[in-house]
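Reminder to self: tokens first, then the designed residues, so the page reads top to bottom the way the pipeline ran.
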């Protein structure tokens, strides 16, 4: 009789030991899954913040290009604040230094798009290429992204000599 009791006790100890090992493995599995999901969530958040910053910078560059100020838009630096998510709070600060004229070439006299604009003659029109840099900074975290955009702008000979010596 004592022998049967001893076997039952050993069987119970083995069962408890196996159950504890299984609980430990399940706990490790859950902890690892939580850690991986947290890391993935942070990575997705970083990509979203980067894309929002790029969109903010692109918005300000488009404002510079489409501005009705003409050539003066290419002669001034600016700082703009952008509310990218529309909640009424400015999310990004975008700095645009003075654009740089990187190239000027005489407009082609046979190209109707270059010389038929009002105020331009075949001999006095210049195709200028400008480099516009925008640096968007997250107002909360301070994270920064910089984008560079090139644009062609048609100038008269006088305007070209004034702002684009190349």
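Designed residues (166 positions):
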């Amino acid at each position: 009789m004592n022998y049967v009791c001893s076997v039952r006790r050993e069987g119970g100890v083995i069962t408890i030991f196996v159950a504890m090992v299984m609980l430990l493995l399940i706990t490790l599995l859950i902890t690892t899954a939580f850690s991986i999901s947290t890391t993935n969530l942070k990575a997705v958040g970083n990509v979203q913040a980067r894309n929002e910053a790029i969109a903010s910078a692109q918005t300000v560059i488009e404002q510079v290009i489409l501005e009705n100020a003409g050539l003066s838009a290419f002669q001034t630096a600016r700082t703009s604040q952008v509310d990218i998510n529309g909640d009424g709070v400015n999310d990004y600060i975008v700095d645009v230094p003075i654009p740089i004229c990187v190239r000027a070439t005489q407009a082609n006299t046979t190209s109707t798009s270059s010389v038929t604009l009002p105020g331009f003659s075949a001999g006095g029109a210049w195709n200028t290429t400008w480099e516009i840099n925008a640096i968007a900074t997250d107002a909360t975290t301070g994270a920064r992204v910089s984008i560079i955009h090139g644009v062609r702008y048609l100038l008269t000979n006088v305007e070209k000599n004034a702002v684009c010596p190349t």
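The helical segments are 2-66, 112-115, 157-163.
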